[in-house]
Amino acid sequence: MIDLETTGFSPRQHDRIAEVAVVLTDTAGRVQDEWCTLVNPERDLGPQHVHGISAADVSLAPTFAVVAPHLARLLEGRVIVAHNASFDTRFLRAEFGRVGLPVGIDPLACLCTMRLAGTFLPSAPRGLAICCELAGVVHDGAHSALGDARATAGLLEHYLGLDDADPLWAQAHEASATHSWPGLAVPDGFSPVLRGASRPTGHWLSGLSDRLDRVPFPVEADDYLALLDLALLDRYVSFTERGALLTAAEEAGLGRAQVESLHRGYLDALARVALEDGMLSDAEVADLHEVAGQLGMDADDVAAAVERAASGPVLATLPDAGAHPRSEASGAVGTGGDDGVGEADALGRAARGAALGGAVATVAARPRFALARGDEIVLTGAMTRPRDEWEREARTAGLAPWPNVTKRTRVVIAADPDSLSGKARTARRYGIPVVSEGVLEELLRRVEVTRVR
């Protein structure tokens, strides 16, 4: 039994396999073994709302060139059974051909449970789910390769139970026994990658070592903070962005304690901006909690950030005892500055900052990302709304939707912020933010306000 999840419907349109599952059965249809892996399609994943595969997961998966030897070995001497077998075999031929292994799949060595439903489930329509329902077969995990392959195995066992003497079974077995697959050496060290592989077991900051800090503090962390601004544009630090942030921290010589301090300072900066009008709206509170969650902080950290912001400028408290506290608001170092902050007051504020949430780096107010009329934006992936609708709204707001990413592109809106599309890869190379579809509506509202003024 085999089932595939793909980026679309046609390999001729450059669609690729994104997941493959094989369920091995005996001649009576009883399950013997099963195998499944995601496959990196090296392109956008297509309708992710259908198959539910994340770009972050497939970025960790092997390409089909790596999967091919394992798959060929599993299929050797077996009858290929699939629901809508012509679809699966079409993709298999294309994928094997793409890696230089043209394989002819004998139609006689294949069985299609969708076509066989006409014989064994005369009233059934074509869909796998309804065929399983009529046959009393459990179908969990619909639109996952392994879930659908298991369901297909259940259908085959049901058909065989109704009539295991039908000549077509023997014909298929005879054809599969004489059909040869390419003899490929199976490389060592291959491990299937399953859905959820990118899901962290702890917070993504666990990727930073707990070593002693190697650089003085406060540190010039502009590059890291600029990257964090882009990552939090849609209030979601994607898998790709996590990796980039960890790399930036490592390159700057930052230990985990320093990064956590920068994060607290970042949250403080947002709280100060939110409190500029003297009050916090429900939306602003929710936003602070959302950012805190993405940065590995909790409700207590939000409360501490708000308290620090409400009580005025607070000096940095430092993980490195030899560094000097510095007030962002006054420009003072150590014993005071233009605003007349005395040493006692400074130390008191520093101590309060430490009591409220540990070391806190002073971070300047973060500029709010906004688009101006004429800015170029690029959309990529299968959106939940038709792309032409988004582009029409963008033009109405004064933006310029563009078909390809250039260095003039301000932002790329992706169905999945970890998208593997060529547009997303180019954007990352140019340092252009790649954000989720959900942020586009907010960006369009800001352009409208700017345009009206």
UniProtKB/TrEMBL annotation:
CDD domains: DEDDh. Its EC number is 2.7.7.7. It is an enzyme of class 2 (transferase). Keywords: Exonuclease, Hydrolase, Nuclease, Nucleotidyltransferase, Transferase. The keyword Protein biosynthesis does not apply. It comes from the Bacteria. The keyword Protease does not apply. One of its GO terms (molecular function) is DNA-directed DNA polymerase activity. Residues 316-340 are annotated as: Disordered. Residues 2-165 form the Exonuclease domain. This is DNA polymerase III PolC-type. The gene is polC_3.
